[in-house]
Amino acid sequence: MNKGVEKFKILMLCDLYLSDLNYQENLLSKYYLKKDFNVVIITSNYESIFDYQQNNYESKPSKVFYEKGVKIYRLPYRINFLNKIKSLKGVFKILEAEQPDLIFLHGISLNIKDAIKYKLKSNNSSKVIFDFH
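Above: the chain's sequence. Below: its structure in token form.
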């Protein structure tokens, strides 16, 4: 990477991210860091796989921290209807602040609209990709 050139920034938006799992976001962030990319993850404030699996959700305040070189935003839900239809609070503001080159959305979320709004209004050169199954 050339000195003075800003690193490519990848922002991943997912419902669950736990650093001790070997899950898709964990592996992607590991290899993105090896490629010298900046990595940001926006996720819910679940901190336990067991709470997530049992839909035992406790709303906590937002927090931002770094872990293993990844910047992580843990956000409360703005909407959580029957643990099926969810939207995290404040995603669009984070997108504007972080200005990612690539937005990776894992799963179907109402926050898709934030990514599309950012792409259309704020940064036409950014890319948005989805993975849902």
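The beta strands are 9-13, 38-44, 63-67, 70-75, 77-81, 85-88, 102-106, 127-131.
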